Amino acid sequence: QKEDVVVTLLPAGHCPGSVMFLFEGENGAVLYTGDFRLAKGEAARMELLHSGTRVKDIQSVYLDTTFCDPKFYHIPSREECLNGILELVRSWTSLSRYHVVWLNCKAAYGYEYLFVNLSEELGIKVHTNKLDMFRNMPEILCHVTTDRHTQIHACRHPRDDDCFRGNKLPCGLTCQDGNPLHIISIKPSTMWFGERNK
After folding, report:
1. Cα–Cα dist 24/5, whole Å
2. Backbone angles phi, psi at 93, to 5 degrees
3. Would you give the DSSP letter of residue 135?
4. What is the pTM of this model?
5. Which domains does the chain have, with CATH numbers?
6. Residues 133-154 pLDDT 10s
7. Distance in angstroms (rounded) separating the CA atoms of residues 173 and 25
8. 82: burial class by Cβ within 10 Å (0-12, 13-18, 19+)?
9. Helices 112-122 & 78-93, crossing angle to 10 degrees?
10. Where in the cell is it found (predicted)?
11. Cβ contacts of 153 within 8 Å, gap of 6 or more
């Protein structure tokens, strides 16, 4: 039996271009989230999720989440995490220009929010191996660089943890102007958070 279905793409907040799918037909509405990360109140601002003054009646939600587990009792908000990282990075990089931060980012995408906010708040571009993936995202492109001589790195290497243990950044940088670098590592990962205590 044929039925017309309206499919609406809603921002998922996971990484640039990520979407949730809202399917609407004669038999009701279904929301498929995919990976998503929405701040409190963000869904309320999505006009296409509303009909008039109320939220659309959604019969089923297919929730794609790694974190439907009691060990993830409380996951801090994106804002709380950002503020903690900003405070740490600001205090470390202000010690000297040889104090650098390595953001140990395991995935290729999903950290853009962090890069942009660190760069805007601290005036320091984030070093990445390549800019290819950001070429069509000018709002991000101006916050990342391939210049290794910056204090914030998100560069990657197949054995990046080994590099860090040897006081070397994954891009190979160990010193600037003959001065050794002082490196701290920040691992922005919800998985890591869930492995710790409440």
Report:
1. 5
2. -70, -20
3. T
4. 0.76
5. 5-66 (no CATH), 78-186 (3.40.50.12650)
6. 888 888 899 999 999 999 999 9
7. 56
8. middle
9. 50
10. Nucleus
11. 100, 101, 102, 103, 126, 127, 169, 170, 171, 173
